[in-house]
């Protein structure tokens, strides 16, 4: 029973660090997955956020335009004009879904296995990624 502690227990208190994650940890993630994949994920994240902001502006303009049309012409907006706003919003949402899918695509590939294996190797003191 070589794992037996002095007090007779088989377990010991875990150590815990209370500091910021070092930049070398982020570097290990980037080098394990590849710089190209890292940049693609970041660009997909930024693109998704940009499309979300654009969709909010689109809805604001749609509402303002509808109100302006109703006040000016004293009737509802014609269907052809409404379809313009529907299509624009739908295209923005579909593009956003594509961006989210692209953001998570690397996690569904062989890259995940490689990254996980490298992280496990990097945690040992013998191998450094």
Any overview of this molecule?
- The chain has 4 helices and no strands.
- It is mainly α and 129 residues long.
- It has a domain at 34-122.
- Helix 1 (23-33) packs antiparallel against helix 4 and helix 2 (35-73) runs antiparallel to helix 3 (79-104).
- It is elongated and about 85 Å long.
Write the topology of this structure:
Layout: H1 23-33, H2 35-73, H3 79-104, H4 110-122
Helix pairs in contact: 1-4, 2-3
Cα(first) to Cα(last) distance is 35 Å
Q: How many individual β-strands?
A: 0
Radius of gyration: 26 Å
Q: Helical percent range?
A: 55-70%
Order of helices and strands: HHHH
Mean pLDDT: 79
Task: Describe this protein with a few key phrases.
4 helices
Question: Brief description of this entry?
Answer:
The radius of gyration is 26 Å and the shape is elongated. It has four helices and no strands. It is mainly α and 129 residues long.
């Amino acid at each position: 029973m070589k794992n037996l502690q002095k007090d007779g227990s088989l377990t010991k208190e875990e150590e815990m660090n209370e500091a910021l994650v070092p930049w070398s940890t982020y570097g290990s993630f980037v080098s394990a997955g590849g710089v190209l994949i890292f940049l693609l994920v970041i660009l997909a994240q930024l693109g998704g956020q940009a499309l979300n902001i654009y969709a909010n502006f689109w809805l604001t303009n749609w509402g303002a335009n509808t109100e302006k049309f109703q006040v000016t012409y004293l009737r509802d907006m014609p269907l052809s004009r409404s379809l313009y706003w529907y299509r624009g919003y739908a295209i923005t949402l579909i593009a956003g879904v594509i961006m989210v899918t692209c953001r998570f695509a690397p996690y569904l590939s062989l890259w995940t296995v490689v990254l996980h294996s490298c992280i496990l190797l990097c945690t040992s003191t013998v191998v450094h990624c």
